[in-house]
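Sample pair:
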Amino acid sequence: MDLSKYLPVWEQLTKEEQEKLSSSASYQTVPKGTILHNGSADCTGLLLVGSGQLRAYILSEEGREITLYRLFEMDICLFSASCMLHSIQFDLTIEAEKDTSFWLIPAETYRQLMEISAPIANYTNEIMASRFSEVMWRMEQVMWKSLDQRLASFLLEEEALEGSGQLHLTHELIGNHLGSAREVVTRMLRYFQEEGMVRLSRGTVEILDREKLSALARR
């Protein structure tokens, strides 16, 4: 795999900077369910996704999860190298939602490049701004949207990602994404089923009425 194809600012770097990145980066593949980063004390390095899907989430004191954002092909995760961002610390967990391949760039290497390369520094700032926007949007959803609206949005998002209305999701997994208890999600899904929006079976949620879900999500 060629790192240059996955880093948008590659052509703006000097030959020495390109060689520094190429020699330090490693390409890795992990199976679904692998925890790649766990908390601010864990300085994994930068993750540049080649294929697959990652999920970044936080844990409450009670152990409840809520998804902050997801990472797909060509996305880069800075917060897995939070040790290089001295003023920004997140107790963030990053998990492979699917079998995933990625470039791992050591945090120290990237930090050194940020100090000498304007393209790398500007690119990093753009990524940070984008991620913070995603996190703020997610927090707004949690604060101002009801669970039925967020659940409807989540199911439609999953349908778009998977390219199918047949979603292989447990109620616990949905609760982890939304920061809600499994029992609450189950009650809400049963209501959706009663309203003809979905059909439930073991480990599966099938979308039946996309328009009704969309209307609920926009309410």
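The chain has two domains: 3-143, 145-218.
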